[in-house]
Amino acid sequence: MTRAPHSALILTFVLLLVTTGPTRPVAQDLPETSRIVTHALERAAWAEEQNFPGRFRYQMTRRVRRFDGDGHVKRDETREFEIEPVHGVPFASLLSRDEQPLTETELAAEQKRKQQFAKTIENGEYREEEEDDEIVFNEELVGRYTFQSEGMENLRGRSTYRLLFQPRAGRLPVRRHLDQVLNNAEGVLWVDQATFEVARVEFVLIDKVRMWWGVLGAISHAHGSYDRYPVEEEIWAPLQQDTFFDARILFSFSRREEVSKWRNFEMIPDTFVETPR
Q1: DSSP string over 113-135
Q2: Where are the alpha helices (DSSP H) in the chain?
Q3: Would the pTM count as exceeding 0.85?
Q4: Burial class (CB in 10 A: 0-12, 13-18, 19+), 162
Q5: What is each CA distance from 116 to 89, 113, 122, 184, in whole angstroms?
Q6: Which residue from 81, 191, 218, 223 puts its CA 20 to 30 A from 30's CA?
Q7: pLDDT tens digits along 159-181
Q8: In angstroms, how far is CA 28 from the centroid of its own chain?
Q9: Any idea what DSSP says for residue 52?
């Protein structure tokens, strides 16, 4: 069943650990790292309960570039979507490709797809399934890493805690292909001081990841970033996500860069927002 394009990623990371931001003085009264992470997890659980994606209408632009072995762009495609809740479940409607509006036939097909989606929910047949590339900020994810505080940093005009994360030593859980990537990634996590919302995440793959012992292929390089910001006083939403990977899938090679941007968040009338605990 079609879902909003952003839902697969509620947390994809990237870029290198070296940044060009301002110096980061260490605060004297900085909470211990474990308390920062715990508060961030509590905040994420509260936001999940509020089902914010099911209360907003917004637009998203997704640009995907594919490269050949020499690094030249061989395909460049941009798509525009409008995401709006259908019976409280986000649904993405395609608006355009490469700045070209859809044809009447394509628009009719999108409308039919939306009607079928609504009917599935009305009939009680809709089941939200965990996607193989979905990353959720929860205890299972956090448990894969150790965290180290680097002090405070101003990020988009807000004070944030800056934390380095690295994979824990020993055997880490693997339930899906993506877990292999998560278990071999390190990076930086920014947590908003006022709300304990995750404001930004960056990651880089530190070791080659083989899929099915190398039979299906391997990811030799990957990096990414994910930014969030407040669209209302207590409500945060995705702002931008950048990912890049260089992989071998079976007998072919794939280099792909994807940039997604979200904008124009509009709350659906009469949707109650509980005060965070």
Answers
A1: HHHHHHHHHHTT-------TT--
A2: 33-50, 104-122, 139-142, 177-182
A3: no
A4: buried
A5: 13, 5, 10, 40
A6: 223
A7: 999 999 999 998 998 887 788 88
A8: 32
A9: G
